[in-house]
């Protein structure tokens, strides 16, 4: 990866994370406003905003995987795919063994 493409990737990821963070903050804020006007009505909106905060790093990995695949940088594609697989495995194990696992 050349310094030029590295800088472009850094700018793309920074813009993505900045937009995602602002969107999650807006959703959480909307949920708080809804909850302030009618207790309990903003819980789903708050949960959606928090879920977006949690998903942002995973979405960043997906974006990096796509950029690396487009650049045909298969070493980094493999690394990003492996990290995503570990996260997916952790989610599956957590659902199967967690408190909601029936």
UniProtKB/TrEMBL annotation:
Bilayer-crossing regions: 12-34, 46-67, 74-97
Organism in which the protein naturally occurs: Caballeronia hypogeia
Annotated protein name in UniProt: DUF1634 domain-containing protein
Keywords: Membrane, Transmembrane, Transmembrane helix
